[in-house]
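User: C-alpha cells for this complex, please. No commentary.
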Amino acid sequence: MTMTPEVSTAEPRFESVQQVRERLADVNYLADEGIAGVAYLADRLQKPILVEGPAGTGKTQLAKSVAEITGARLIRLQCYEGLDESKALYEWNYKKQLLRIQTEKGEGGDQSGDWTDVKDDIFSDEFLLTRPLLEAITADEPVVLLIDEVDRVEVETEALLLEILSDYQVSIPELGTIEAKQIPLVFLTSNNTRELSEALKRRCLYLHVDYPHLEREREIVLAKTPGIGENLADQVARIVRSIRQLDLKKSPSVSETLDWARTLMLLNIETIDEQTAKETLNILLKYQTDIAKAVKELDVE
Amino acid sequence: MPGLFDRDGPRVTNAATQPATGGPGGMLELLNGFVVELRNAGLPVSLTENLDAMEAVQHIPLEDREAFKYALGATLIKNHAHWRSFETVFEVYFSLRGPEYKIAEDGDGDTDIDELWRQMQDLQQQSEGKGQGGMDALTPEEIAQMLMQALMNGDQGLMRAMAKQAVQRFAGMEPGRPVGGTYYLYRTLRNLDLDNMLDKMMDATRDEIPGEMTPLEERLEKEEYEDRIEKFKGEIEAEIRRRLVADRGAEAMAKTLRKPLPEDVEFVHASRDEMVSLKKALYPLTRKLAARLARKRKHGRKGPLDFRNTVRHSLSYGGVPAEPKFKYPRPAKPELIVIADISGSVAAFARFTLMLVYAIQNQFSKVRSFVFIDGIDEVTDYFKSTEDIQEAIHRVNTEADVVWVDGHSDYGHAFEVFWERHKKDVGPKATVLLLGDARNNYHASQSWVVKEIQQKARHVYWLNPEPKSYWNTGDSIVGEYGTYTDGVYECRNLRQLEGFVEKLA
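Assistant:
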C-alpha cells in the first residue's frame, strides 16, 4: 500500500486543527471547524485551497490572516479578464535586452560571431521580470500565495496555474524549469461566477465559506468592533440573520454587518428598534429594491 | 432503567463497527465503499481525489468526527451544491462508526445528557410523587412540557436527548419493517405537534418579558425559536436514520436515501423542499450562464482582416504589418418571445424558465412573455416594472388574465388569440419559445398558428417538461405542434434547461 505520508522537507506549519483555530483567533479571524480543518490539511498535504463563497465572507481575509500567523509574506495575484502569462508568471525585460544588444554593437566587435553568447546572455535571470506566481516559488522566505477571484480569468488562462499548483514549479522555455525553494501555502478565491475547470478543482482542496451562523457572527462582531456591548452585538447578528433569510439581490456580507455595528456604535445606540433599523439599513443593503423589501418586512404587521 | 439510553446496542455492534476497527486495511475498504456510494449518488469523484482523501484522513485524528467529515469533504466534494448529498451519505455511512456510537457502546459517554435526564427525572418524581419513575412513565403532555423547556433554553444536549426519546416513543419503529424513514418522521412529528409548540413558546416568552415586546423583538425571538425547532427536527431525522441504519445496514439505507442533485430534480415532481433548493440553485446558475454567454459573444471566432487596426499596430514594427488584426464578429442578440402554459401541472417549469430568461435578459435584445391556460395574457410589463423577479412571478400567478372558460389548458384557443392580437410582433428577428406539455384536453389543436409563426419568426422551439416517453400519449399532442417547430426539447430539470438556454443565446 502506498499510503505512507510523503516525507516533506518543510516543517509542518501547524500542530493540530485546534492550534490553527486558536492562532487564527489571536489575529481576530474566527474560523469555524471546517475552515481551520482545511487550512491544517492544506499545510499537511501541501495542496492549494480553493475557497468559494458569497462576496464578503472573509475569503481573502483568511489568506491574509494565515500569512500573519505563519509570519509569511503574502504575495497576491489579482485575477481579471485578460490576465496573461506576462502578468501572472514572468516576462522578459525586452527593453533591457535591447540595451544589452545595443551595447554590444556600440563596442564595435564583429557581433555576428558571438551571437550565441548574446543569446544565452539576454535569456538569463538578469533579464527576467518575475510576476507574482514566479515570485512566490522563487522566494527564499516562507510565502502565502493568494490568487484572488480566479473565476474572473478565462478558462484557457486557468491552465497557466496548473503547473504551479500541482508541482510548485514553472517552466520557462528559454531557461528550463524553475522549482520552488519552499512550498508556499496557496489560496485561490472564487465568487463562483463560473464553473472552474475540473483540472483546477482536482488539484485543490475545496472550502466553501458561507455566511456565518448566528453565534459565530456575534463573536465576529464582538471581536472586530471594540467596545460594543454583548446585547447590541446579539441584536445585530439576529437582525442580519433575519434579513439574510429574505429573498434579496445581495444579502448583507460580514463586512457590511461590521460596518453596521460600527455605525450603531458611533450613533450611540444601545438597542435597535424598528426606526433605527430602517434608517440605517442602507449600510447593510446596497440595492434600493432590497432596502424597500427589508423595510417592508421589518415593518409592523 | 436501561431501555432509554442504549441505542439498539448489541444488534449493531458486530456488523457495522467492525470495518472501522480493522486497522488501515479496514479504513481503506471503508473509504472505498464510501466513494462508491458517493458516485452512486451522482457525485463526481475522480481517482486522484479518492487518493487525496485517503492521505488526508491520516493527518486527522479519527475520533474527531467533524474533522474527519471536513477532511473528506474538502478532498472529495468540489461543488457546494453537492454538499448536502455528501452530508447525507456521510451520515448514513458513518452513523454507526463514529465516536458518538462508540461512546454509547461503552456506556460511559453522554454523561451530561444522562445526568440531565436523571435530574429531570428526579424533579419529575418529586413533584409528581410517582414511585416507579423512568421516562416511560411520563405522559405525552409532560414530554411536550420538557421539550418546550429545552427549546426555549436552547439546550442542545437536552434537545438531542428529547429527540431520542421522541423517536423511541412515537415513531413505533420495528426491526425489519419495510417502511421508509419519512413515515417514521411523520409519525413522530405528528405526535409532537411542533407548530403549536411555536405559538406556545411565543406566548410563554411574552409572559416572561416585562412590558410589551416590540414587533421587531417578537420577530427575532420567533425566528430564533423556529431555528431551534428546525434543529430539533434535524436531530429527530438523524436519530431515525441511525436506527434504520442499525436495522438494515448502511448500504441499503444509502440507497433509499439517495436524492437527486438540485440540477437533476424534475420540475414537475419537485417537492416543496426541492423547490426551495431549486430556487437557490437557479440564482448562481443564471450568473454563470450570463457570464458564459457574454464571453461567448465577446470571444467569438476570428472574422475578416481589420485593416485599420492592423495599420495602427504596424507602427510599432516600423510600418511593417507584422501583426495582422481581425474583426471579431459580434453575433446579434436574439429577440425572444416566450409563450408559457401556466396551468397547474407545468406551472413550476414555466416559472423557472421565465425566471431564468429574465435573469439573463441583457443577453437578449428584447424579451416578451405571454402566459396562458385557456386564455392568454401578456406579462412583459410585470417584469419591466420591478427588478424583483420573484415579485413579478407572483404577479403573473395572481393577476394575469389567463382563464377563458374553465381553466383547463386549451393550447389551440390560446394560440389563436395570440395570433390575432400579436401577429405583427413576430418578426424575422424573433425567436419564439413555446413552453408546455401540450396536453390539450382534446380541444382543437389549431396547429396552423405554430406553422404561421414558424414562417415569420427566426426560430420556433418547444420545451416540454415531460419525459420523452410520455409525449403523444393521452391528450398530449406535442408531436403535432412539433412538426412545425425547429425542435422539441425535453426540459425536465435545471441542467437540461440551462443547456437549452445556452444554445439559444
